[in-house]
Every structure is written in structure tokens, then in C-alpha cells.
Amino acid sequence: MSSFVIFLLTLLSIFPFRQCHGRLFTFEMHHRFSETVKKLAGPLQNWPVKGSLQYYTQLANHDRFLHGRRLFKFDGPLTFSDGNSTFRISSLGFLHYTTVTLGTPGLKFLVALDTGSDLFWVPCECGRCASTDDPTLYSSDFELSIYSLNGSSTSKKVTCSDSLCTDRNNCLSSNNHCPYSVSYVSSETSTSGILVDDILHLRTEDSEEKNFVEARVIFGCGQEQTGSFLDVAAPNGLFGLGLEKVSVPSILSQEGFMADSFSMCFGSDGAGRINFGDKGSFDQEETPFNINPLHPTYNISVDQIRVGTTLVDSGFTALFDTGTSFTYLADLSYTKLSESFHSQVRDKRRPPDPRIPFEYCYDMSPDANTSLIPSLSLTMSGGGQLAVNDPIIVISTQNQLMYCLAIVKSDALNIIGQNFMTGYRFVFDREKIILGWKKFDCYDIEKIDHFPSQSVNTTRVPPAVAVVPGNDNAERSHERTTNTRQSSFASSVFQTCYLNLINCFLASLILLLL
Ligand SMILES: *[C@@H]1O[C@H](CO)[C@@H](O)[C@H](O)[C@H]1NC(C)=O
Ligand SMILES: *[C@@H]1O[C@H](CO)[C@@H](O)[C@H](O)[C@H]1NC(C)=O
Ligand SMILES: *[C@@H]1O[C@H](CO)[C@@H](O)[C@H](O)[C@H]1NC(C)=O
Ligand SMILES: *[C@@H]1O[C@H](CO)[C@@H](O)[C@H](O)[C@H]1NC(C)=O
Ligand SMILES: *[C@@H]1O[C@H](CO)[C@@H](O)[C@H](O)[C@H]1NC(C)=O
């Protein structure tokens, strides 16, 4: 409730400027002059008192500055030069990917979008990168690109003295290339290399004619990758969207390119969008992020869970992570939720299967009635409801169909993964420190022209072909996945399906026919 009021006030106070500048500028202004920012900026900064003449003069100057820049730099929310479409690729860990263009001449990378980490990195000057020789490895036809510093005329080295260089322990001298190294939660999955500075190609969305924007960002030249990055996830780079200073959203807002906010939507058919500078709408539901100042993450609180007709009183905090395919829950919440689900399901439970990361799986007859499967809804801190559209996953092997409660039991970490985000647009409002969400199919407004239909055609989801356990392929994928992120497991071994059951039936049937 209070956040709604704050949002209203923000809009009212900036109203006079809206006409000529739209959301972006209004944000920027708020950002530079908000009381919070003044406090954070400390005593050295000579901030004018709010409402004073000086305040408005400075505002106006700032206005002019941005206005001038706006004419050639941006005119509305920003997105990647290849468009704001994202698409889920089942064979690559069920994550959402998009195409980004880096450097001069521009080189395109198909990167996974990850709110659970901060650094943007691409394969580069490879010591060990995902194989480029065997594209069939990814069951998805795209070419892997490899960045190199001397391949781009606009690349600059980031030295150890740069403020974004955090790994200084490994620096020999301040003039050296800044090294980086990031390990991820997925077992043995990491990237390391050096930081570089180059142009990320963006464009504005509001105007009829596309205005291209060149933004300098810092990213990792990933020379050594391990684990999932070598095959089942993000072989062509990972786009960290976190809250730390090094993430691209942080750099873009810091440099005045956009409001400190972005949105992502996740359509039920696997298509999505990403829009930088998007602050959402009045009628969205909201919940605050729990910020740990030492390591800020998109950490939210769930107060209550409703499973079918039952209220499960078990609150928890969790990372809100687009870079994790399935939701992970630790006890007690996991047990309470899954037992409540189980008690309401009418289908026959299947014996445990070590190849499936989910514990609660059931037989599904072809005439199953989807409305009998218990629904799932989360009450977030602040009271906002998030009705989970896809709490289950349908898995089909050659001769049977089953469905599982798509939650992985975790030892400690709670993660709201991408399967809980389907059917919504989420706004990561980093200025207000809230998560906003609203039902959205990603198609309401715009025409779609940019995503490859190959990846989203429901009749062909997923591109991974069914592999019957026991044959060579199955063993190979099994081996590959045992030491990688569990969440991508199902996709390698089975035809899996995220869609609502009806579509899923269609998809499975068609896949069997093909
Ligand atoms: C990007 O998405 C927004 C809405 O989410 C839409 O208004 C805009 O037109 C889209 N731009 C492109 C190029 O698709
Ligand atoms: C690129 O840089 C490497 C050193 O990192 C150098 O050995 C190589 O010759 C350069 N390649 C070109 C084409 O300039
Ligand atoms: C989320 O925040 C809570 C409280 O601030 C903390 O206890 C918890 O460890 C955090 N969770 C994650 C996944 O970072
Ligand atoms: C499914 O179950 C619901 C509730 O029991 C019922 O109203 C509906 O008619 C059923 N649908 C089908 C297709 O059997
Ligand atoms: C989806 O794929 C099927 C089978 O290949 C094809 O017949 C259909 O036209 C495709 N639909 C779209 C929208 O591309």
C-alpha cells in the first residue's frame, strides 16, 4: 500500500516534465534529486534544498542537458539493438535467451538472461569454451560467437585500477588487465578471464524510426568456462542483470541511459521480452526486495503459500532468479508445500526416479482433467498474490506421460525459478527496491517480428528429441548432466513440456508423429 502511494507521489512531482521527456528523464531527475540519493551522496555534495530556486535551476539545467543528449541518444525505453524479444530454449536449460551485439564491427551473442548474477560475460579468447564445432550438441541451430579484444576496434582494457575491478588480489600491477572469476551455484560451473570495456548496441523503442544507441559497458572476456557453460546452459554467454555495480543495468542507469529499472515478461509459449528503463504500471502487484548492502540480490519474502484449497503457513525468503529453470525450496516450506500438494492430487504417484530432480510425480492419463491438479499461489510480503501458472511440468517418454510438481528440494537456498514466472511481466525496480508483477502474455501491445519461430513454435517445443532411457544417447546425456545443474536435467533426457496441459498434449502427440 505504501509503495503505491510513493509511486503516485513520484509521478505527480514529475508531471510537468513528462510531456517532453517521458519516463526515462523523469526517472533520471528523481534519481539525481531524491532525498535518498542526497543522503547517500554524503556531505561533500552541495545539494540544493528541495523547492528552492536553485533546486529548480539545477533541475532545468539537468533537463536541458538530457534533452540535448536525448535528441541523438535515446527517446524512450531501451532495448537491445536486435529487439526486446527473448525466447526460452528448452535444450539449453529452459532459460530465456536473447541476442546482443557487442563491439565494432558488431558481433552477435545469444546470451542467457540471469537476474541471479551480476556479471555479463561472453566466450572470448578461449582457453576453454563451449565447443563451436558441434552445433548439434545444443539441439538448437545457432552459431556460437567468440569475442576478442583485437577483433573490435572499440574495445578497451579494464585495468586493475578501475573501480569496477573487484578481483584486485590477483593483480600484479595497477596497469594490468583486471582479472575476474565467478563461480555459480550450479555445481562446478564457473567463468573466468579478464574484464573489458566495449560498446553494447541498444536501441530505443518509442519512436517510429529506430534510434540506435551505443553504450559502453564492462563485461567479462570469458577465457575459461566450466560445468554447465560448456554444454547445457549459456554456451554463448550469460547476461547478469543483478544489483551490483558491474551489471549492465547498473552501468546503463549510472550513465544516464535509462531509469534504474527493467522488466522481463515470460509468455506461456516460451516467448518473452526485456525492456530497460521500464518501471511497470500503477496496477501491478509489488513486493519489496530484501537488500543485503554487502551483496545486494533480488531477494523476496513469501509469507504464505496456498496449495489448492489449503493455506500453508510457512514463510520463506528466496532469490528471484530468471537464470534458474525450476524453483528450489528448502525445508520446512518444501515439505509442507509438497505434502499438501500430494494430499490433494487424485492421480497415482510414481515411484522415485533418480533421473528426475522432482520428488512428486504422477501418472497422467490422456483424459486427465487439468482442473483437478491443485493450483499454487504465493502471498508475497506486503500482500501481493502471485498465482503460479505452471506449478507442474509434464514429462513424456515414448510410452508414458507423467506430471511432476516442478519444485526441487534444496539443502539451504530458496530460489524462485523461471517456471514460476510464466504468464507475467516482472519489473525489477531497482530504484524503488521492489519487484512488480502483472499478468501478461507478452503480446498485448506489439507486433512480434524478431524472435526465431523455431524456438517458440509450440508444436516443436522442445527441440530436444525424446531419448529413451537405456540407449546410448540417454547415457551420454545422463553423464553430462550428473555434474551439472540439476534443473536442466529433465530437458536433456525427456521431452518436457512447460505449457498448459492441453498444449502439452498436442506438442507431445506431434512430436511422436514427427
Ligand atoms: C518491446 O516491448 C514493448 C512492450 O513490452 C513494446 O511496447 C515495444 O514496442 C517492443 N519493441 C519491439 C521492438 O518489439
Ligand atoms: C590478437 O591479440 C593477441 C594477443 O592477445 C595476438 O597474439 C594476436 O596476434 C592478435 N591478433 C590479431 C589479428 O591482431
Ligand atoms: C534473503 O534475505 C534473507 C533476509 O534478509 C536472508 O536470510 C537470506 O539468506 C537471503 N536469501 C538469499 C537466497 O540470499
Ligand atoms: C474437470 O473437472 C471440473 C471440476 O471437477 C469439471 O467442472 C469439469 O467439467 C471437468 N472437465 C472435464 C473436461 O472433464
Ligand atoms: C510450427 O511447426 C509446425 C510443424 O513444423 C508447422 O506446421 C507450423 O506451421 C509452425 N507454426 C508456426 C506458427 O510457425
The count of DSSP E runs of length 2 or more, i.e. the number of strands, is: 27
- Report the biggest beta sheet as strand number plus sense, adding barrel if it closes: 15 strands, mixed
- Name the CATH superfamily classification of the largest domain: Acid Proteases
Q: What name does the CATH topology of the largest domain carry?
A: Cathepsin D, subunit A, domain 1
CATH class of the largest domain: Mainly Beta
Query: How does the helix and strand content classify structurally?
Result: alpha+beta
Helix content: 10-25%
Named at the architecture level, the CATH assignment of the largest domain is Beta Barrel
Total count of domains: 3
Beta content: 25-35%
Distance between termini? 52 Å
Number of helices: 9
Break the fold down into its secondary structure elements and pairings.
Blueprint: H1 2-33, H2 35-41, H3 53-72, E1 78-80, E2 85-89, E3 95-102, E4 107-114, E5 120-128, E6 156-157, E7 179-183, E8 190-204, E9 212-226, E10 238-240, H4 248-254, E11 261-266, E12 271-276, E13 285-288, E14 299-307, E15 310-312, E16 316-320, E17 327-329, H5 333-344, E18 361-363, E19 376-380, E20 385-388, E21 392-396, E22 401-405, E23 407-409, E24 415-416, E25 424-429, E26 434-439, H6 453-456, H7 472-482, H8 489-493, E27 495-497, H9 501-513
Parallel strand pairs: 4-10, 5-9, 16-24, 17-23
Antiparallel strand pairs: 1-8, 2-3, 2-12, 3-4, 5-10, 6-8, 7-8, 8-9, 11-12, 11-25, 13-26, 14-15, 14-16, 14-19, 18-22, 19-20, 21-22, 21-27, 25-26
The structure holds 2-acetamido-2-deoxy-beta-D-glucopyranose (5 copies).
Residues 79, 83-84, 205, 273, 275, 445-446 line the site of one 2-acetamido-2-deoxy-beta-D-glucopyranose.
